[in-house]
Amino acid sequence: MHVRSNDTVVVISGKDKGKKGKVISASPKAGKVIVEGVAMATKHQKPRQQGAPGGIIHKEAAIDASNVMLVCGKCGKATRNAHKVLEDGSKVRVCKKCGAAFEN
Description:
This protein is an all-beta fold. It has strands at 8-11, 20-27, 32-35, 40-45, 55-60, 63-64, 68-71, 78-79, 81-85, 91-95. The strands form three sheets. A six-stranded antiparallel beta sheet has the order 6-3-2-1-7-8, with no helix packed on it. The protein has a two-stranded antiparallel ribbon with strand order 4-5. A two-stranded antiparallel ribbon has the order 9-10. Strand 9 (81-85) and strand 10 (91-95) form a beta hairpin. The protein is elongated. The two termini are 14 Å apart. The mean pLDDT is 93.
């Protein structure tokens, strides 16, 4: 999968197109990601413990990973990522537009 947890992404299709957010969790097997502040779903929740509040909860829903694009921290543009092998043999993700490495 091209995105990981704590990556900044922008939504490129769907009802939340254009929104930026941080990836809360990624599910590579399902091909889904949960982005903070995107695809908000309402859930009616009963109080589970004595004194706990119930009511309508707003929560992020999973969206398909193909609907998000990684945002470069250096140039600030949405980009696809490339892979580069360093001298020590480790593989890092780099921006295709400016060549900066993404933090892992």
